[in-house]
Amino acid sequence: MGIALFILTIAAVNFINLSTAQSTQRSKEVGVCKVLGSGRRNLVFQFLTESFVLTSIAIIIAVLLVNPVIYVFSSFIPQGIKFHPFNTSMLLFLCGLLLSTSLLAGFYPAKVLSSFVPVLSLKGVTITGTGGRRLRKALIVLQFTISLIFIIGTLVISHQIQFMRTKDKGFKTDAILTINNWHDQTGKMQLLADKIRRMGGVQNVIAQSLPPMGFADMGGIFTYKGKNETTLEVSIKNGNESFIPFYQMNLIAGRNIHHSDSLDELVINEAFSRKMRFTKPIEALGKILYENEKPHPIVGVVADFHQGSLHDPIKPVVIQHQPEWESSLAVSLATKGKRVNESKNIVAQIEKEWKQLYPGTGFSYSFLDESIRWLFQKDEQTAWLMNAGMIVTIFISCMGTFWAGYVHGTKTH
């Protein structure tokens, strides 16, 4: 709506500039009308009516173009949104837009044109005064200011998106394939992991509940019964002792969890240690966290990593090994220096093994870096819309300025 309002403002400013720039071409018309008895009020009404008719034609063309434009912008518009031009609220909106735009764009040109002196108008002489010239200059500055706002906004958003794409997330994201089967209670995922591990082009495979970052998240409540009892809702990452080295997380204090067949030791992140009011991560080592009154010792602290969009703050995290929740596989592919086709061949082999173990279940996978990119989809859509708005505003601004210059040049010549 903001972009649309800016573009509409620029269009109205252009209309004012073009109308006043063409004033000399209509001065004789105004003079004749006044000689024939037309008053200033009649002329204002005439020019406002012209503005109203032009705006009406523009709105009719816009209404005809809405559905094709919606189709072009379908990836930026939520599903189910449709344009109903004969809906009562839409008709009221269009009527309000028609009246406001007609008045905004037509009032000043009508005021200027109707103020010409008949004798001078018939000689082709127009006097608009210094105030009119100042206003036109101010309007030109306004429309280019809006264009600059779009340009600066577009550059800032582009740099922000580039920052989001390249910023270190706190763990490895490249060439990691995730495979899920949330309903598997047979234990076949571990068998599938063993088969994948033996494939060429695969570096490592681990079982997990969710990757460190993405749309989905698993939460839990832990309590620290220290000097000041603290109960926190945290993000839980389930994985065995291979989880931290697999994602190349930075262990800044303590050690990794040891191998076990059930939930025992915990590793937390820096944000969790700060919530426990420790000034240094090492102070959290050996402390006991309670989940449903079951004690679990903290054996390590990892550096903070992002779990969601970079717009969101980093949450307290617990990394634990709870095998019954680990129904997902993360596969690290050895794709460095290799072609994309080789990755596709590995995926095809994994799918073949999947169908043998789960013949009635569809195979689906995703690359972690692509899933993370989806977190920034709205930002990329905003950047795309800003680019489109920037192109339109620059085009309208330059078109109006060049045409006004041409009219003044023709008049001078």
Q: Tell me the strand percentage band.
A: 5-15%
Mean pLDDT: 82
Low-confidence stretches: none
- How many strands appear in the DSSP assignment? 11
What does the largest sheet look like? 6 strands, mixed, barrel
Helix-strand category: alpha+beta
Enumerate the strands of the largest sheet in spatial order, edge to edge or round the barrel. 3-4-9-6-8-7
Helix run count: 12
Label the overall shape.
Answer: elongated
Residues in helix, %: 40-55%
Please give the alpha-carbon distance between the first and last residues: 42 Å
| H-E string | HHHHHHEHEEEHEEHEEEEHEHH
Briefly summarize what is shown:
The protein is 52% helix and 15% strand.
Provide an overview of this structure.
By secondary structure, the protein is of the alpha+beta class. The protein contains twelve helices and eleven strands. A six-stranded mixed β-barrel has the order 3-4-9-6-8-7. Strands 2-10-1-11 form a four-stranded antiparallel sheet. A hairpin with a 5-residue loop joins β3 and β4. α3 packs across α4. The radius of gyration is 33 Å and the shape is elongated. The two termini are 42 Å apart. The model has no long low-confidence stretch (mean pLDDT 82).
